[in-house]
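S.,

As promised, the S-adenosylmethionine run. Input:
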Amino acid sequence: MTKRKIGQNFLIDRRVAKRELEYANIKKDDVVLEIGPGKGIITKLLAEKARKVIAIEIDENLVRELKGSLPDNILLISGDALKVDFKILPKFNKIVSNLPYHISSPITFKLLDCDFTLAVLIYQKEFAERMVAKPGSKDYSRLSVGVYYKSLCEIMETIPKTCFYPQPKVDSCIIRLFPRASPPFSVLDETFFFDLTRELFNHRRKRIKTTIREVYGVEIENIPYQNMRVEKILPEQIGELSNFLFDFDDVET
Ligand code: SAM
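Predicted complex:
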């Protein structure tokens, strides 16, 4: 029995799994992290090509099922990927997964904080589009800013919903993501920058000045980009705004 509540839409088309590995250019010395191996369609292909695969699965029934059929170079961890401390895992350099959709956002932010060279991930199409959305587009969001700040991300292809069982309501996408060696602009305080980004996008249609007044409860003169609407402000401009506000005495950090 599949559990939709924990994102169990299993990939049933091996050609898609193979292409995911091709995009990740898996080599003999790679150590790959996989979130949610499920029945192992991607895991087993990874194990054939990589040195080691670390797979974290929350469903104990699937863990039991998988255990009997996996080669030695797979470390299968039974647990919630959001709770597992990735620092205690063996060092991995790539991430390849068909992610459970219900945790797309928190797992993406958690992965973006890890040290790796390349990730190839399957997401629901709408989420993937938000990851790569440009300022001014309807999909531009806090997620787009966070992904841009941390990485270079592109959509590789759309996968029809018929490639999964049970069939989800929407199509999916494979994305490829390279972490940046350093951020594209500098901020004085990253936590403040990300908190500000979240607050701004809670009011995406409003002007910057109005939003800042509502969020921090103070009227500040000459705020950078004060008349722009949140939905159009570039990540670089949010960085500038965050540095301006971080230095400002009346704004609590
Ligand atoms: N990789 C398999 C495939 O492509 O067919 C399964 C992908 S399915 C979309 C997502 C998998 O993640 C399921 O096996 C589900 O049980 C597992 N999962 C859901 N939430 C999880 C979590 N918090 N931590 C680890 N695994 C999780």
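The pocket of S-adenosylmethionine is lined by residues 6-11, 35-39, 41-42, 56-59, 62, 80-82, 98, 100, 103 (CB under 6 Å). The longest strand covers residues 151-159.

- D.
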